[in-house]
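Duplicate of earlier report; Reverse transcriptase domain-containing protein input re-posted below.
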Amino acid sequence: MHFLSLCNVHFYADDTQIYCSFPPQLMDRFSLIINNELNSFVECATRHCLLINPSKSHVIVFGPRQNKNVIETLIKIEINGVTLKIMDNVKKLGVVIDSNLRFEYHINKIMQRAYLSLKFIYGSRKFLSLKLKIMLCDTLVLSLFNYADVLYGPHLTNLYRRKVQLVQNSCLRLAFGIQRRHRISHKLKDAGWLNMENRRLLHSAVFYHKLILVRTPQYLYQKITYRTDVHNINVRSKGLISPPNI
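Output:
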């Protein structure tokens, strides 16, 4: 945007994100920059008869815990004289993003919905065939984890990977009538399912394949660096992708 010189912006329908990256020692300078550019953004919106609601606008700080805590205490971002509240998590297009980028709050909410759906199926299990129980578990329970798993998957801690897998294990136990003290992983093949880790990997592979093939969205495709872009030596790794620097 021409009125933003150092900040970046993302739009989706009526949802807007303005973000800026800076070293902690320059917080005072960038706090002023962000406020100035935010004011420019508000003025531009007003000229187009759009009103920015400060009560629905929030600030979230990402970074190492120690630096983040200091910045959250000192930084002050305002819209029309109203200081914006600093949040530990914000919701963006249905995904709850926390300041630690662990997505624990998001996963907890999904698991609540998943177990409620599983409880609903459990009440009718005696009247359902095996095929129907598997289909209902996949459609009403496991599908809840599909949305944005490309985003949150790589950030999950081992504890939350285990928690997500336990949801699928509960689905298998319901479908096949296996008690908790018995192993269940061998039933994945019978259900025609991948485990949750491989399920996320499959979705990621499809996403990255489409990103490379279609080259959209551009802001993500531009982060891809091929080995041939780094050097011209003809080696076996030619054409492979180098991990981006974040």
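The chain has ten helices and ten strands.

Merging into the original ticket.
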